[in-house]
Amino acid sequence: MHVPKPPITLHTRRPRTPGLRRALLGILAATMIGLIGTPAAIAHDSLIGTAPEEGQVIDTAPETITITLSEAPLESSGLELSRIQITGPDNNPVEATPVTLEGNVMSAPATIDAPGVYSVAWRTVSSDGHPIEGVFEFTYEPASSTPTEGPSASASAAESAEPTPTADASPSASEEEDPVAEPASEDTESSGGVSWLLPIVIAVILVAGAAAFMIGHRQAVKADAREDGTEG
């Protein structure tokens, strides 16, 4: 009597696909690529230019002090977020009206009358919410401070021999050299807040990527173990 044999069941082992691992590696690669643009994204607004310019010698008194930034600073109707403080010769403060904001331009009318070196300190809140500030200097040498010759021929001949015009010109050379060292401090102050935030952002992104990789790896190991148990 012929007894039929039970059908033979073949266990086909599913191939281990590296799709999950490739996906995790892709996540880590995208994370590293994203870090390239992180410094630009968190950088504060920067100074574009001023009027008068840093270290400039002018013979006409400016009616307005102007500061141009890379982005428009924040505004508040109830708070004075932007300030421009002017100091004249001998550290005498110059009275200035409240700051006016027009886009990325800060301006304040000021009375500049005495010749000498003027220092302008400004402060505002950049578009990312962080305060930025800077200082620049210019020299005012009005044309009227130079002695003028009299209308008579005798007076003009006598005054031409006096060395006063050259004496007035000498202070401008020394005063013109002083403000040259200021731009370095100005750039440092306007970008000082980036260094402490960048390491935090990088650390958070790396930790998240590492956690995702470990979770995916454990799931792959468990799946392989279940497949081996089924085959046994």
UniProtKB/TrEMBL annotation:
Residues 141-167 have a biased composition (Low complexity). Residues 141-192 are annotated as: Disordered. Keywords: Copper, Membrane, Metal-binding, Signal, Transmembrane, Transmembrane helix. The chain crosses the membrane at residues 23-42, 196-216. Pfam families: CopC (PF04234). It comes from the Bacteria. It is found in: Cell envelope. One of its GO terms (cellular component) is plasma membrane. The keyword Metal-binding applies. Residues 44-139 form the CopC domain. InterPro entries: CopC/D, CopC_dom, Cu-Rt/internalin_Ig-like, Ig_E-set. GO terms for molecular function: copper ion binding. Residues 174-189 have a biased composition (Acidic residues). Gene3D superfamilies: 2.60.40.1220. GO terms for biological process: copper ion transport; response to copper ion. The keyword Signal applies. This is CopC domain-containing protein.
